Amino acid sequence: TGLPVAEDLMTQFDVQAQKMLAGEQSPEQAAAAAQKGWMAKF
What we know:
Number of domains: 1
Mean pLDDT: 92
Radius of gyration: 11 Å
Largest sheet: none
Structural class: mainly alpha
Distance between the termini: 9 Å
Shape: elongated
Number of helices: 2
Strand content: under 5%
């Protein structure tokens, strides 16, 4: 845990948000993908 993990989680979220903004996935898909990555860390 700590700063490296927090930065990784924010990067994962940003990647999913960019895919959503590019029209590659829905907001629901972006949220689910981001949550899946976050749940692996917690």
